[in-house]
Amino acid sequence: MDVTTEEHSKVPPEQLRPANPQNVRRAALAALIGTMLENYDFVIYGTASALVFGPLFFPEVSPVAALLASFSAYAVGFVARPLGGVFFSHYGEKLGRKWVMVTTLFLMGGATFAIGCLPDYRTIGVLAPLLLVLCRFLQGFGAGAEQSGGATLLAETAPLGHRGKLSSFVMVGAALGGVLGAGAWVLAQQLPEELLMSWGWRAVFWSSLLVTIAAAIIRAKMAESPVFEELKATVDVENQAPLKVVATHGRTSVLRVVLMNWGVSTQSYMYQVFLVGYLAAVVGVGTTFIPPVQLAASVAAAAAAFATGWLSDRFGRRRMTLVLCGILVVTPFIVFPGLNSGSKVVITAIIVLGYMFAAQGVTGVHMSYLPELFGSRYRYSGVTLGREISSVIGGGVAPLLGSALLTLFLDSWVPVAIYMALTMLVSFAATLTAPETVNRDLNIPTDAVKGEERPGIRA
Q1: How many whole angstroms separate alpha carbon 185 and alpha carbon 200?
Q2: How many degrees, rounded to 5, is the angle at CA 360 between CA 355 and CA 364?
Q3: Backbone dihedral angles phi then psi of residue 72, each to the nearest 5 degrees
């Protein structure tokens, strides 16, 4: 069946579907705690890549090569993300958003727990890094549909006038996951070096089990997206081919999302992962200084995600995204001289502001903006494909490319700053081509076009 606007006439207007406050609260909490787990896993893995995985899993090479090897294993998770996104978004369009969000939760949590159980290189040789890469792949495979699923479900559940604010809870959860991850490393680094390298780092990964159990309990009680429930009443979703539909009708929007998110993903992971290694290897900052700074930055980022989502309800998704991306085009050329100053006050300010603007600020808006760009028939698939493809060409390779550029240009930061600025410039330009979508009716089966936003509506 083709996606046509005639189908929309069979669906009750969105205004006639008042939001259930209990369902909204549960959806917000479920999305928050799920992405909290995802980013907790990411932060503890990224920090471990910079601080402990080199000597544990790649001890036969130089420290710089070990850092590159650790970041390469880290990048495998991003290669897995679009594969997981394609797999799970298929079922998200057929079985519902809730089913996927529960399934991916256990996959991510299980893979993270398993990393803590892995023998190191000295115990089983080359099999150790291979198993590490496998676990990282499974982490990424599960994470591939996590944020997109939470954003889609929340955007489709939230009442009009509050969609940006509530959808931002996905990234608030991601920031709080960073808080927990940094906090776990702060505690682990209180141990003597010998104990940290023997079992302390393992305890950090095992702790993800607590977040997984809590998230599973909450997600089991949440309701399905009302837009998906209404879609099932008009479309035979179980027999449709979601990827075929999005390939036929949503190619332009998927490409737009890839480009809109490329620079955002790149800068986000440069701040959260690459700069940890840069501070330790180039600036010479002690590794015990880094986790507390990440902790403070993640707290600030949670507030920033909520603030930008709320502001997008008032001033529009497109405007907020353009302002934030425009700032991030120029900041890389200020960041590196500040880091190289060695001042802990300056370094702390840079990391905190980087987390607020690059890591969570833009994505706080994207959590409502990207779902609003797509039609109801393939929204989950469209958002997932666009975000996860951009995560590979952006965040997945960003720390690796940053390390390679430093090596190639003899520790010069200038090529790294140019790389960060150019990718964000692409995101800025792509956003210029996108329509405004604030309060768009999400039951419309076709992609957003100029004029569909309803800025005057408030719940």
Answers
A1: 9
A2: 160
A3: -65, -45
DSSP character string of 48-90: HHHHTHHHHH-TTS-HHHHHHHHHHHHHHHHHHHHHHHHHHHH
CA distances from 53 to 48, 110, 237, 287 (A): 6, 19, 44, 14
Total length of the chain? 459
DSSP 140-173: HHHHTTHHHHHHHHHHHHSPTT-HHHHHTHHHHH
Does the predicted TM-score (pTM) go above 0.70?
A: yes
Mention every residue, 6+ apart, whose C-beta is less than 8 A from residue 134.
none
Domain boundaries 19-432, corresponding CATH code: 1.20.1250.20
Q: What is the CA radius of gyration of the chain?
A: 21
Question: For residue range 188-246, what is the model confidence (pLDDT) as tens digits?
Answer: 888 888 888 888 889 999 988 887 888 788 777 776 666 766 666 566 555 565 667 77
Sign of the dihedral defined by the CA atoms of residues 169, 24, 390, 437, in that order: negative
What is the token pair recorded at 200? Answer: 């302390």
Q: Comparing C-alpha atoms, which of 31, 304, 364, 369 is closest to residue 168?
A: 364
